[in-house]
Amino acid sequence: MRAVDCVERVDLGEIPYEDAVRDMTDWVARRRAGEIPDRLALLSHPPVVTYGSRTPPAELPAGLTVPLVPVDRGGQATYHGPGQLIGYLVLNLRERGPGDIVRWVENGLIAACADLGFETVRRDTPPGAQSLVGVWTPDGRKLVSIGMRIRGGVTSHGFALNITSDLVEFTRFVACGLPGVAMTSLAELAAEQGRPAPAEQEVRDAVARALGAR
Questions:
Q1: For 57-78, what is each residue's pLDDT tens digit?
Q2: What's the predicted TM-score (pTM) here?
Q3: 113 catalytic per annotation
């Protein structure tokens, strides 16, 4: 997959999930029409659990304390909330040429984490197993969830990186279709290193650099 000259960086604040999806749908149509360049939108959401169409009902939370919203991306159920950086990627893959867009995102986020002083890895999914797409610590905790959709050659949705997320929320359901998966955050990893968590702006800048957005 070849590099593209410009990925437009769009910095937003906390946006309700449904509003963000509506905006993203508009961006996809405009990108497909050639009206805007490739785009990386960085934002956060109020507390919400989203899930794909293949998520078994037994994996969803019982006794809901946050909204539960079905989505049209890949992946299973996950939590979004304060302290988490969401990245929505609207990319024209026909202009980028052949390549694995999900692996490109994984590798970019691994580079961003390294820039921030954290070692992370990607994991290959064994045949027939639940997807291990995402960014992980070497000891098997999940830091970043990735769920994307491609339609008409243009991507939508993206990733969720835990900075200071409330990790308890992930224990209320089967996160990412992986029973027993331990989620982590940059704050937790930084505490283990005896240093403060990076500020959200620092994380945004590292992610944007790694994904070629400006």
A1: 999 988 778 999 999 887 899 9
A2: 0.94
A3: no
